[in-house]
Design a protein that fits this description.
The protein has three helices and 48 strands. It is mostly beta strands and 608 residues long.
């Protein structure tokens, strides 16, 4: 977490919301809202790992049943201590605490490398705050330390470390010997030795920074607050065998913020939040080859918040911890669908605590460590568990007739809107799906509608959400990377409907079949897959079928209204227009050919 020096802490809370947050539920499937809030958290009683006066806590998992905690023990004169914790069922046992620095330590960060090894970086306050590192090896729950190394021999602040495997790491810090420049250093751990490799400057001014975003096995992102420009910037990094490289910077948040918190979501995705005048603002980030793209910002909570911590649980869930300035602490699980986040209700787990840190042990278990302010700041931790409601992936393929050419669809992502385009009379979907930069392989936005079967007839929407369709026909979530993911109570049969702004809607001719948490359906390989058969779809070639073009006004029919009210009025225009059926960015006679071909045709999707 980054804490910035600003007037944040003296803001008067608005609307009398002192302790309890306001959540914005972004999904538009109101019938499923109750089910979206059924992810649950449970917490163990506290376990003590240090007494008394514990501060500067850092924690990292070693495997799904073991973790390491590093901290400053002010009860022992500020020495640096590490201890191993083992989880067995609902119990936690600790090994013997070991000193990694018997002087006085400042900021500390620990990173697990393997079940038997970890690395610590810290400030040595007895030596003017220089940056040091050490490797710890674990035998059962006992720790042995090798020789420590200096990675920066000048005052060192804003520490961060991330690992890519058992031996490749990068360290981030503000270099007091180089005007406080933000610096990334490449290190390699061989056995219990630390090899110091090259370093790169990511900020020419002292940044507010203490975290990396791990994007893949070789790439990462560096988010930092630029004090000189009053904005948050982001730089992509890449490691090779013995070096680290940084790409050009990109503005992530264009205004001054109070805190920045990030959580990795795996596969080039991450979630971030920040505070603006007492309100926590959230968004999703995606890394493409072209750079970074972001979802729409949204307000999650308001309150006199002292600290926020995040950790990912899997690619679709992360844990959100809030420690308010009255020292009461709450937690919630956030579900991520594309660029949309939906939160559970806040659950209280402790009071009068500070210095909260957390780590996930698995998809279902996590550790929260903290300083117990009511008990002489002793170090304690809580084992948390998650129970999830059912969640499913939708692996769907479809084609749009207008842009289809040969075996795939032409794409023209430059004309696509950043915000989904379905907030009009029909289908009247006003979700906040948004992507600031849309990749080149995306053809257009679709609206996916999952319905439950009632009396043999498909009706009653379970949920709806805006998605993308790529040029190979794959339906992708609003992050343009993964197939859609939804949480809902599964009914006996569910049917799938796809809507498009100027093509006729289609529905699956049979109920979808779930296999290992995935619903697969391919509309493209047979007209029998579409409800209504050839009356409900378009034949594109001898092997492919798709959604029929020509419905410019989206009323479910291709008729004179589409030609007279839309095509004629938009003829000669360019951009993202309803009458541009082939998606080339212009309305011309080529588009009229699709209307002529499908005139008189209507969608076969049953009305609800």
């Amino acid at each position: 977490m980054i804490v910035f020096k600003s007037s944040y802490q003296v803001f008067i809370l608005k609307f009398l919301l002192v302790l309890f947050p306001v959540f914005t539920v972004q999904a538009q499937n109101m019938s499923a809202n109750k089910s979206l809030f059924q992810n649950k958290l449970s917490f163990s009683d506290p376990f003590m790992f240090s007494f008394p006066k514990t501060s500067n806590i850092s924690i990292s998992m070693l495997d799904t049943n073991r973790f390491v905690i590093a901290f400053r023990s002010d009860g022992y004169g500020g020495k640096g201590v590490a201890v191993i914790g083992d989880v067995a069922g609902g119990n936690i046992s600790f090994g013997s605490p070991e000193f990694f620095d018997e002087g006085i330590v400042g900021d500390i960060k620990v990173q697990g490398l393997s079940p038997a090894k970890f690395i610590i970086i810290w400030q040595d306050e007895k030596q003017n705050g220089i940056g040091k590192t050490i490797v710890g090896e674990v035998n059962y729950n006992y720790i042995s330390f090798a020789e420590s190394y200096v990675f920066n021999d000048k005052p060192t602040e804003e520490l961060s470390i991330t690992s890519f495997n058992d031996y490749d790491c990068v360290i981030g810090f503000s270099d007091g010997g180089n005007f406080g420049n933000g610096t990334v250093k490449r290190v390699k751990v061989i056995g219990n030795l630390v090899m110091m490799l090259n370093e790169e400057v990511f900020s020419d001014f002292p940044p507010n920074f203490n975290t990396f975003i791990r994007l893949s096995d070789t790439t990462f992102a560096v988010p930092y607050y630029s004090n000189s420009e009053n904005n948050v910037k982001l730089r992509k990094g890449r490691i090779s065998f013995d070096s680290v490289f940084l790409a050009e910077e990109q503005i992530m948040i264009s205004n001054s913020v109070d805190q920045l918190n990030v959580a990795e979501l795996f596969d080039n995705k991450f979630y971030f939040s920040y505070f603006d005048q007492g309100y926590e603002i959230t968004s999703k980030g995606v890394s493409f080859s072209e750079g970074f793209s972001f979802g729409k910002i949204d307000t999650v909570l308001s309150g006199n918040t002292g600290n926020v911590e995040l950790t990912s649980l899997d690619a679709n869930h992360y844990l959100h911890i809030v420690n308010y300035e009255n020292d009461s602490a709450y937690a919630d699980i956030v579900t991520v669908n594309g660029t949309i986040q939906t939160s559970t209700q806040h659950q209280s787990f402790e009071k009068e605590i500070s210095s909260i840190v957390l780590t996930a042990l698995s998809h279902e278990r996590f550790i929260i460590a903290y300083s117990d302010d009511a008990n002489n700041n002793s170090g304690k931790l809580i084992l948390g568990t998650v129970s999830y409601m059912p969640g499913y992936f939708f692996d769907i393929s479809a084609f749009l007739e207008g842009p289809f050419y040969g075996t795939a669809m032409n794409s023209n992502s430059d004309i696509l809107p950043e915000l989904q385009p379905y907030c009009f009379e029909s289908p009247n979907y006003c979700g906040k799906e948004y992507l600031s930069v849309i990749p080149d392989n995306i053809v257009d936005w679709l609206l996916i509608d999952v319905r439950k079967s009632v009396g043999g007839k498909s009706s009653n929407s379970i949920f709806r959400q805006a998605v993308f369709i790529s040029n190979d026909g794959k339906v992708l979530s609003s992050d343009a990377m993964r197939i859609p993911f939804f949480e809902f109570i599964q009914y006996e049969n569910i049917f799938l409907v796809l809507h498009h702004r100027n093509h006729l809607s289609i529905m699956s001719s049979s109920a979808l079949i779930e296999n290992n948490g995935i619903f697969n359906y391919d509309f493209t390989d047979s007209w029998l897959k579409t409800f209504g058969g050839l009356n409900g779809c378009a034949k594109l070639n001898s092997e492919s079928y798709g959604m029929s073009a020509g419905d410019a006004n989206g009323d479910g029919e291709v008729n004179n209204l589409d030609k007279n009210d839309f095509w004629f009025s938009q003829l000669g225009g360019s951009g993202y227009l309803q009458s541009d059926f082939n998606f080339d960015g212009e309305v011309d006679t080529d588009d009229l050919l699709f209307w002529i071909m499908n005139s008189g045709k209507s969608s076969q999707v049953p009305e609800q």
